[in-house]
Amino acid sequence: MYNIDNYKNSRNFIETVLEARRYEHNLDNLVIFAGACQSYYEAILSAGANYASAPKRVLIDMLDPIIVAETVAYTPVDKFVPLAGIISNTREGLKGIGGVQTRGQYREGMPGI
Q: Is the confidence at residue 78, as pLDDT, over 90?
């Protein structure tokens, strides 16, 4: 379970996350969702992803990452994304998606923006 060679694409996800974090270390300035069905969840999060799939090595729904991205995008920048709220809206819940505390990315502007 904890051997990277047991996963088809996780090594690529991990390398990509590490490369992205070389350019932007701050977890709130660059929000990364990485992984796919049955990925090496722990290694992907350790590499620097904010969210990853799948803690219990299950098949996730193709819309689950979109639910996470949409929630991050529409949570105000002065608030943390409600992690339990995101996960409860996905098909597999805690078995399929996990992550770390992350600030929202939505900014309001005045006037008229």
A: yes
| Burial label, 20 (beta-carbon count in 10 A; 0-12, 13-18, 19+) | middle
DSSP 57: -
Helices (runs of H) and strands (runs of E) counted in the chain = 4, 3
State the average pLDDT over residues 82-95.
90
Amino acid at 97: I
Domain boundaries, the chain: 4-99
Q: Find tokens 């920048």 and name the residue.
A: 77
Asked whether residue 1 carries a pLDDT value surpassing 90, the answer given is no
Q: Which amino acid is residue 38, in one-letter code? A: Q
Q: pTM for this one? A: 0.91
Q: Are 43 and 12 in contact (CB under 8 A)?
A: no
